[in-house]
TrEMBL record:
One of its GO terms (molecular function) is DNA binding. This is MmcQ/YjbR family DNA-binding protein. The lineage of its organism: Bacteria, Bacillati, Bacillota, Clostridia, Eubacteriales. It comes from Oscillibacter hominis. Gene3D superfamilies: 3.90.1150.30. Keywords: DNA-binding. Pfam families: YjbR. SUPFAM superfamilies: YjbR-like (SSF142906).
Amino acid sequence: MRYDWLDEYLLSLPGVEKDYKMEWQWFRYKIRDKLFAAVCSPEEKYHLYGGHSLVNLKCDPREAELLQARYPEVLPGFYTDKRTWIAVLLDGELPDDVLRRLCQESYRLVLKKLPKYVQREIQEEM
């Protein structure tokens, strides 16, 4: 995995918890039990995704289309809603700053869907 900073970065965001879903072999990053990022390495049988480590991130559908057109390592989400999630191949050449921004945006999209009192609690942690 080229982005050795990714785990530490995701965990540094306020209110984030990490777990491991054994059945899926996914490391999941959540805010109050709401998924915003997942790191996995699909098997070869998953064609486009197989043999790559990747991170699934929530994404605005319009931005997802633009990202997929611009960066070959940005694909529709793996085993998620392909309209609102993207998969970033972690062995690609996506610039670090772009991946950090995508992680922040995924976090923000999920955070804004949480109840207002939860958002305030998490923002107090900042």
